[in-house]
Design brief:
Elements lengths: L16 H20 L3 E2 L5 E3 H4 L13 E2 L2 H5 L6 E3 L4 H10 L8 E10 L11 E10 L7 H17 L4 E7 H10 L4 H11 L2 H4 L1 H9 L7 H11 L6 H10 L5 H19 L7 E3 L10 E10 L7 E8 L13 E7 H10 L12 E3 L7 H13 L4 E3 L6 H11 L3 E4 L2 H6 L1 E6 L4 E6 L3 H20 L1
Parallel strand pairs: 1-5, 7-8, 12-13, 12-14
Antiparallel strand pairs: 2-4, 3-4, 5-6, 6-11, 7-9, 9-10, 10-11, 14-15, 15-16
Helix pairs in contact: 1-5, 5-12, 6-7, 6-12, 9-10, 11-12
Length: 461
Amino acid sequence: MTLTPARTMPGVLELLPLEQIAFQDMLDTIRRNFERFGFLPVETPVMEFADILLTKQGGETERQVYFVQSTGALEQGEKPDLALRFDLTVPLARYVAEHEHELGFPFRRYQMQRVYRGERAQRGRFREFYQCDIDVIGKDSLSVRYDAEMPAVIHSVFRDLGIGPFQIQLNNRKLMRGYFESLGVASEQQMLVLREVDKLDKRGADYVRETLTGPQFGLAHEAAARIMAFVEVRSTSFDDACAKLDALDGCGELFEQGRAELKDVLGLIRAFGVPESHFALNLSIARGLDYYTGTVYETHLLEHPQIGSICSGGRYDNLAGHYTKSHLPGVGISIGATRLFWQLREAGLLGPATSTVQVLVTQMDETQLPAYLELATQLRNGGIATEVVMEPGKLAKQFKYADRAGIRFVVVLGSDEIAKGTVAVKDMRKQDQFEVPRTELVKTLRVELEQAAAMARAGRG
C-alpha cells in the first residue's frame, strides 16, 4: 500500500495542544470582554448563497471567494450557487435583514467564527482564520455615541490580553471627504484618494504625493500638498486632538459634520474611562472598504509597529441596503484573531501556555487503580481538571509526561500515603513537593491554583 503523505494545505494555522490552549485563552478573553459590554452571541453558516456574498462593494475580498459545490452538482455540470463567507460583516447584514422583525434595536451582536479567503500562499497570510467582530445596528438611526463605545471595548480587550502598550487611532470619513471637497476634488475621485491616503504608513509620503499628482489623479501640487499636510495630523492628548481639529482649514457642511462627530466621539471615549495615552487622532486612517461613512478606527501595538493594525472598523450608513428597504446604520470593529496570534507568537510576545489539565494522578501500584480513580473523582468534583495515569510505568516517566504536557501538579498516592490518609503533591513549576491530608487536598490545590491565576492576571495588567 502506498502511503499518502500527511500534510496540511498552505494558509492554515494548525497548532499543537499547548499552543491551541493559548489561542483559546485569547478567544476566551475577547469573548469575555464582548459580553462584558452587553453584546449578544450570533453564529451564521459557513456557507452563504453566492449572490448574497457578492453584493458587497469595495476591497479585494470578492476576488478571493471560495465557491462550494457538491459532487452531484459537479457531475451535472452546474455552476456553484454557494460560497464560503470571506468575512462576518456581509453575513451579519443578511442576518439582520432576514430577522429584522424578530430583533430588538439597537441590535448588539458579537460573532467569533472562521472565515475563508483565497489568499496567495505566503508567510503570515491565512486562507482560513478566525474573525472576532462586534457591531451595533440601529433602526432608521444610530447615535454617534455608539462610535465612542467601540474604542472602550478595544481598550478593555487588549488591556486584558496584556500584550504590551497599544493605541487606538481614529479618523472620520466625513471629515476627510469634506476636506477633499473643499479642495475641489470631484466626488467620484474622493474614494480613490481615500484609498491612496490609507497607504501612507505602508508606502510613505513620497509615494502617496506622487500618486496624487500623477496622471491617475492629476491633482494640482498645491491641493496635494494640503492633503498631505492634512493626513499627517496626529495628536498626543485629548486637548491636542481638539486643538488640531479646530485648526483644520476645511469648510463645508460635510466637513463640519465630520469635525463635530469626531470631537464628540473623542470626548465620550474619555468619559468611558479610556486613558488618553490609549487613543489618538490619525487623519491618514481611511480604511479600504467603501461602505465606511463616518468614524474609522485602527489599533496598533506601540512597541511593534511592524505588526500593523490589530483591530479595526468603523461606521457605515446602510450595509443591509442590498437585502432590505429598511435603513439600518451601524458601527463595528473586527479582530483578526488567527493572524494576531501568529504575529504575537512570531514577535515573542506570548508566554508559555499552561495545560488545561491541572493535576495528574500517578499510578504507583496497578492493584490500587480504583483508589486512584476515586481520588481523581474527588478532585474533579472539587472543580479541578484531573487526568489519571491508566497504565503502569516508572514514576520518573510519569513525572516527565506531566512536565512535557504542561500539567502543574502531580499527585502521588503510594502505600505509605494510603496508610496515613495523606497525598504527596509535587508542584512541577516550583519543583517542590509537599504532603497534605487527603481531606484537605481539594482545598489546598484550589488555593494554589487561584493564587497562580491571580499572579497571571496581575502580570497581564
